[in-house]
Write a structure and sequence with these properties.
alpha+beta; 2 domains
Length: about 110
């Protein structure tokens, strides 16, 4: 990461699985790190801890992740952001505009 930047898993090369280690070729190893989103938008890392740790040590600002699931309350916030015109957003929704999980429903 330090020399070449963050390489998404799809671009990285992986050694083939061996009889001793069939897990290396498992589907999850070819995904980006997985996160879940809590009721107030908290991001919880569930898979890819090594990548998160290395990125943190190297001060990498952001890495791609897959959202595994979202809390129902957080999804309601996303839905309201998607359904409300920008000029009509109440302050409590405006507070979420910088959250990384709303970029797909409310681009900056």
């Amino acid at each position: 990461m330090d020399r070449e930047g963050y390489r998404p898993n799809e671009e990285a090369t992986h050694e083939k699985a061996t009889d001793d280690n069939p897990f290396e070729d498992a589907y999850a190893n070819h995904l980006e790190p997985l996160v879940v989103i809590g009721r107030d938008g908290e991001v919880y890392w569930t898979e890819g801890n090594h990548r998160f740790a290395i990125a943190s040590i190297l001060d990498v600002d952001a890495i791609p992740v897959y959202v595994l699931c979202r809390h129902e309350s957080w999804q309601a916030v996303r839905d309201r952001l998607d359904d409300t015109p920008r000029e009509e957003l109440p302050p409590e929704l405006e507070a979420y505009l910088g959250h990384p999980d709303v970029r797909d429903v409310r681009p900056e």
